[in-house]
Amino acid sequence: MEFKFTTENIEKVNKEISKYPTKLPAVMGILYIAQEQNGWISMEVIKEISNILEVTEEEVFGVVTFYTMYHQKPMGKYHIQVCTNVSCMLRGGYEIWNSMKDKIGIGNLGVTEDQKFSLEEVECMGSCGTAPMLAINEDYYENLDKEKALQIIESLK
Hints:
By secondary structure, the chain is of the alpha+beta class. It has helices at about 5-15, 25-40, 45-55, 55-65, 85-90, 95-105, 145-155, and strands spanning about 80-85, 110, 115-120, 135, 140. It starts with 6 loop residues before the first helix and ends with a helix.
């Protein structure tokens, strides 16, 4: 299935490209725009972005596979990311991670059958001073414990 940006998103893409002296540095911002529109980064999305930026598909794919913020498959309506890096780990990150797996019933990069939740264990999300933390889509929740994290998930049901 072919992917094309909406008219509104083409304007955003062009604005992103205009920020840089060459097109390639706009790849991350454009991937994010595509993911918002499509829900994930498919090979069709990669093709379209490579055409727009006049770079190879491999160059775009390299960015997609390097950064965990780009989804290479459809994710749930609520994509939950739990940090288990050092600061979060020391303050209960794994307890939160394990409670999320148990509560939702899926493992790392899993998606519930109803497509409502997806779950991902991630490295540092830059919240070391307010660890442990998790993110749901674009919302960050910090200074958590297992009970607070479970309450957040329960509020989404």
